[in-house]
Every structure is written in C-alpha cells, then in structure tokens.
Amino acid sequence: MNTTARRVVAWAAMIAVALGATACGSGNSTPSSGVAKSRLHEILESKTIKIAVSPENPGWGIQDKSGERVGYDIDIAKALAKSLGAKAEWVNTDDASRIPLLKTDKADVVIATFTNKSSRAQQVEMTIPYGANTDAVVVVADSPVKTLQDLKGVSVAVSAGSAGESRLKEVVPDAKPVEFNGVADTVQALKSGKTEALVENGTLVHEVLESAPNKYRVLDQSLGSSLYVIGVKEGDPRWINYLNNFIIEYIGSGKAEKSYQQHFKADLPRAVTNW
Amino acid sequence: MLSFMPTFLSGLLVSFEITAIAVVVGSVLAVAIYLGRAGASRVVSGVCSTYIEVVRNTPLLVQLYIIFFGLPAIGVNFDAFWSAAIGLTLHNAAYVAEVYRGGFESVPRGLRDAAAALGMSPRQTFIHVLFAPALRAVYPSFVNQTVLIFLASSIASVLSLNELTHAMLAINRETYRTIEVFIVGGAIYLAAAVFLMVGSRLLEPRFFGWAKGRR
Known about the structure:
Number of helices of chain B: 8
Helix content of chain B: over 70%
Number of strands of chain B: 0
Largest interface: A-B, 32 and 30 residues
Strand content of chain A: 15-25%
Distance between the termini of chain B: 45 Å
Largest sheet of chain B: none
Strand content of chain B: under 5%
Oligomer: heterodimer
Radius of gyration of chain B: 20 Å
Shape of chain B: flat
Order of helices and strands of chain A: HHEEEEHEHEHEEHEHEHEEHHH
C-alpha cells in the first residue's frame, strides 16, 4: 500500500512537470531569433532544399509505381530546386501536417495544394498563387443530394485540415463532416459506403469519376475555388521574395502551362496566369 | 488548452469505451481460444494457433483497415466505432489467450492429480483448481495487456473515430499549438493508464484475497 501511494505521488509529480512545460510553451513563440541569415542563403550553401509534397494526390503529387514522383506540384518543386542549384529532398505530407512541418523546420517549403486561407496566413507566410482548383462535392449517382443545401445532415468524407473541410463547415454548417487522414481514405470512404458524399479538389474528383463511370456524380455547385500557394515559415521576407519571383518566372516561361496541360489536360486557370 | 478540455475528455471517453469492449469481450473470447488451442482436437487447436499467430504478426493498423475499408467489399459494413471495437477485441483476444496460456501452464500438474484424487469433477477441477490460480498468476500481465490495448486504441483515429488521438489532431489543426496539444494529450493518456494500473493494483486483494500470503 505504502509503495503504491508513493508511486502515485511520483506519477502525479511527473504529470505536473509535463503540464508545467506546456504552460511555459503557450503563446506563439516569436519568429527567428534575430539572426538575419535568410533561408535562401542557407539553401544556396547547403545545396539541398526540403520540399513537403503530397504522395497521394493524383495530378498534383503522387508516387507512381516505380516510386517516381509526378504531378503539377512536383514539376514546380523540381524547377524551384533547379533554380537554386539545390537537390530536392522530398518530405511526405498530408493536409493536416503542412503547417506543423513548416513550423518545426522539417520542410523549407510546402508545395502541396496549399490553399491561401486567412486562418493559415496567421500561422505561416504564403507566396503568390501558382495553381488553382475547386472544392467539389461528389455523391453516388442515385443519391437524393442534388444541391449543396441537400447536404444538411448528410455524412461527408473530408481530408482533415483541408480547405475543402473548412469550406464545407462554412457553406453547409449542418452537414456532417467525417475526417480522414488523406485523399486515399476519403475516396475509399465514399466508395465503401462509409459516407454519403465526398469533398475533394475538382481535379481529383475527375479521377474518381473516370475510375468508375456512372457510379458517382459531381454536384453542379462547388464549395468554392482555391488558389494554391507555396507555404513558408514566417519571418523571412528575403525568401518569400525569391519564391514570388520564381513563380512569376515559372508561369511567364510557359512551363506552368505545359505542366498543367500534361497533368490535367486543361488550360492553366486564368486566376494564375494573369501576371 | 483548458478550453479544449471537453473535446479531450469526450475523446477519452470513446477511447475508454472501445477499450472496455475489447477487454471484456476479448478476455472471454480468449478463454475459448486458449481452451481450443490446448484441447484435444487437432483441427480446433490448429485453427486457434493460426488465429493467434496471424493476429500477433500483423499490424493492428492493417487489421483495422481491413475491417473498416476491406469488409464492405463483401457487403459487411461497420461504422467507425464498431470497426474499432471489433478490431481491438479480436486483437486483444489473441494476446490475452497467450497470457492465459502462461497462467495455466504455471499451475503444477500435481494439483490436477490431487483434485482427481479428491473426487472433483473435471469441471470443478477446471474452475477451482486451474482457473482461479491461473487468473491470479496472469493478473499482472492481464492488467499490462489492458493498458497496452488502451494505448493502441489511438490507432483507431485513422478510421475517423473521435477518440482521444483524433481529438488531439483536430485541436492541433485548429490551434497549430502542436507541442502543447500533444503534451496535454499525452498527459491524459498517461494519467488514464496510471489510473488503470493503480486501480487494478488496489483491487487485487479484493479479487485474490483468498490467496493472501501465498504469492
């Protein structure tokens, strides 16, 4: 009994220490510790750049059967590395991990269908857009859901931490979002009947429809359109400036258009090309 | 973080629920699996051993995916809660069956002969001479396994089940205060596990008071 009591006290002390550490850590830490060196120079010196990309987002970033990464995001990421004379070091990410990867310096940039949401801009910094998409809703072909309003009370598979998830909550607050860890699982949830609907980006939805024609239907209304930006950790204007300039150059050179055509068989959206 | 306590705690409740189902149902199943394995029938014994080995040598994550996403292909569709509860139960049963085996084998053979000599029926022998001492012998490992399955229940977060880890991830996505969220969540897991450990330690004399001093 005595040893048990002593042990309880020991554990309680450990928990108290852990919680104490939390209290110290609360409040957002300030950006860089005043060292003026930009990430740009670090990359130029080390000749490697850590780029967070999606491994499972068809058209944007996937690893094909041979392990090769392909997609619109991958093309621009490779071009970015090349422009810096650096080797691209890939970091896999799902939607929810993108901001934590930047904040913890596990990635120098995030190029993974990262939508420019204001709530995110309070956490990390963003470049100008390099791509665009919509957040589309898919249902099974014979579903009674015809419009966005019909989603009231309907279970909808969403990628946790995606723009589609927050858009759904804004546009149809009465829908029932069911959160999964990534595109592969959300699509599987709809296909296996775990949910009645799916929210994913419009280009991906296209793939779902092509894989099983006549089984699924896309609602005419989308939840909104997204501009994709490159995300970086806050507090490094020199680095942001480099990336913005790189994107303008990438689009202006026609490489973006060519890549978009190759992966989506469509024209690069005007919202992006208006530079 | 305090304002998120209700989210943390409702997640913890779901974690407890699936753990409770896995422990209660799993332990009963485990008795059947152990008896089948130790029994005379070669076929039953083979099936039970295979079950134990398959479950113990595949990742729980894969097992949960098969139940949640795989079974619908053959028309069996469980929701996230029951997929997790069933997955953890089947998982726990295999491990607890092995725990039982250790316990039963620890009962000296002579005791069985003594019971027979006293004229006890096979059923009486099993319940009073084998089962009760075996339970006492396995109690610590059983508690240990319960804590392990409680911690393993975090894996069910991938099935969109709102248990504690899923709650932590959701709060993290909202606040991006990663370190704090995971420290608080981890502390809740720790506190709950310690509660299980200490609680079972305190209850031990009540269950096994008859065996006082014989340990």
